[in-house]
Write a structure and sequence with these properties.
With 538 residues, this protein is α/β, with parallel strands linked by helices. The chain is 41% helix and 12% strand.
């Protein structure tokens, strides 16, 4: 007899297959319309590469790339898609971290690629295991693999962020499986690099557009293109629903150049306040994910405990394997080094209640960290320290209530630091965040300066928050939401099966012309004319 769980899984698989088939039919029909109606393409090409966005189905980033490419084609721009044809052994998305020897699902991925790019100009790449002989990598230990270069390509450094991301940890073990995965990624990266080098040399593109820029296939392509002096644009999900962030810098760093003269007017302040009123209640999504299914108030037990201390300081952590972390590690080697350094401060200040709040994404189903703050707290005996309170990621405590009670706030590089500044709190950052360059928080130059500033804040009778922290934070958030987030909401809808996966809405192909879309006008200007990918105020 079939169990209810088995029946539900079968139903889910059927729903998934039907959804993907319907999406693919729409993609094939629409891309056919683009191919049939696009004018002759005579420009130097733009190369798109986004192998790490998806396997089956259409993710947000896969859709951003496809729509942008179709829009360029409609204006007569030659677009070439660099497409994986069993070219990675394995790719990042096709790596099963529970079984690293499992082959990626190439058949279904190739079918999806046919739907997305089948009627556009494509150059495929395949895996060449002989390009970089395995015997050169076989004797190497983990540290040697991490620093491995071949020719002048820093292959170890290029694949490292992807290794950490797929294994869901920062500190890697020097074991057989980790070394084997390193070797496979390095071999795949070098094979790809040679074929992308050929494509670059033969086509002389005006620019290259890649997803993320940190996953090893796209990181490798970006490295090759930049060696040739070619502009590389990377993209990631934006801060608004169905929105993208494009940049000639690092999409995962999300650096923004906000003009010094920009100040919020009355209507802009009202728009931002409306957004914040929802966010402070937990009503927001990113990449199709609802991070806060609920937001509970601080318990009476916690409030009673906090009342027994002179002051309270919350400590907000991040996800250690996130692709933002390589950008963040400028003061401390990594987030756990920072947390370790705080333990001595905690013990030296028994009058202060320190509250460590683990990031809610750390325990996300399907993406749970294998090196978590919860494990760190257990290993360090945090619960036995009287003036240190730990809130795990599964407890949806209202972080904004913690901020309102705080003397000041400690962060690594989490966005909560930006919000704390908006709420008027003093923020001391230990890592480079997307907003620290905009002067919204203190980011000391080194560890000595960091701990000196921390001691000053703890000992001060009152913390004086610079007035410009709050105003700069509001400027940054507004710019991030309404100028850097390029909305594709006119073209995309949730597919109803997977969070963050989409299907096309019904719209005429003319809607993709830059003269009919502020988003696509901005993308054309950025890719073709060196624009900054920031929306103009309408």
């Amino acid at each position: 007899m079939k169990t209810p769980g088995f029946i539900n899984r079968v139903r889910q698989r059927i729903k998934l297959e039907l959804t993907h088939r319907n999406t693919d039919r729409r993609l094939i029909a629409f891309s056919g319309e683009i191919a049939a109606s696009a004018p002759e393409r005579t420009t130097a090409p733009v190369i798109f590469f986004d192998a790490s966005t998806r396997l089956t189905g259409v993710s947000l980033n896969a859709a951003f790339a496809a729509l942008s490419a179709w829009s360029l084609e409609l204006k007569g721009v030659r677009v070439i898609h660099f497409v994986c044809q069993q070219g990675l052994a394995p790719c990042v998305m096709g790596t099963n971290r529970a079984n690293l020897d499992q082959a990626p699902p190439c058949k279904s991925c190739i079918r999806q690629s046919e739907a997305l790019f089948g009627q556009s100009e494509r150059v495929i790449f395949e895996f060449d295991a002989d390009a970089l002989p395995l015997r050169l990598l076989q004797p190497l230990r983990l540290e040697q693999l991490m620093n491995f270069s071949y020719g002048k390509i820093p292959l170890g450094k290029l694949v490292l962020p992807a290794i950490r991301w797929i294994l869901r940890k920062h500190h890697l073990q020097d074991d057989r499986q980790t070394r084997a995965l390193f070797r496979k990624y390095i071999q795949s990266a070098y094979s790809l690099a040679l074929q992308f080098e050929t494509l670059i040399s033969e086509t002389q593109p005006q620019s290259v557009v890649v997803f993320n820029g940190m996953m090893y296939p796209e990181a490798t392509a970006r490295w090759v293109a930049r060696e040739h002096g070619i502009r590389v644009i990377s993209h990631e999900v934006g801060m608004q629903p169905f929105s993208a962030f494009f940049t000639e810098g690092d999409a995962t760093a999300y650096d923004l150049n906000i003009p010094d003269a920009f100040q919020l007017n009355e209507s802009q302040n009202e728009l931002l306040d409306d957004y914040l009123s929802k966010r402070f209640k937990g009503d927001f999504r990113m990449a199709g994910v609802q991070f806060w299914p609920e937001m509970s108030q601080l318990s009476p037990e916690f409030l009673k405990k906090a009342a027994g201390f002179k002051q309270m300081v919350p400590i907000f952590t991040n996800v250690i394997f996130d692709t933002s972390q390589p950008h963040a590690n400028v003061v401390f080697d990594d987030m756990f080094v920072w947390l370790d350094s705080l333990l001595e401060t905690v013990k030296n200040h028994p009058e202060t209640l320190f509250v460590i709040r683990a990031h809610p994404d750390e325990a996300r189903v399907g993406k749970a960290s294998e090196e978590s703050v919860a494990e760190w707290a257990e290993a360090r005996g945090v619960r036995a320290i009287p003036n240190l309170h730990f809130i795990p990621s599964q407890e949806f405590v209202n972080s904004y209530d913690l901020i309102r009670m705080a003397k000041f706030v400690l962060i690594y590089n989490s966005t909560i630091g930006l919000e704390a500044s908006i709420l008027g709190a003093a923020v001391l950052s230990a890592g480079k965040a997307r907003f620290t360059a905009s002067d919204v928080a203190w980011l000391p130059a080194d560890q000595t300066a960091y701990h000196a500033k921390l001691e000053d804040l703890l000992k001060a009778d009152a913390v004086n928050v610079p007035d410009h922290f709050r105003s700069n934070a509001r400027r940054f958030l507004y710019w991030q939401l309404y100028r850097s987030s390029l909305s594709f909401e006119d073209f995309l809808q949730a597919d109803g099966v997977w969070a963050g996966y989409v299907s096309l809405k019904d719209f005429p192909r003319q809607a993709l012309l830059p003269e009919n879309s502020n988003t696509l006008r901005t993308i054309h200007d950025g890719i073709l004319r060196g624009g900054d990918f920031m929306l103009k105020e309408e």
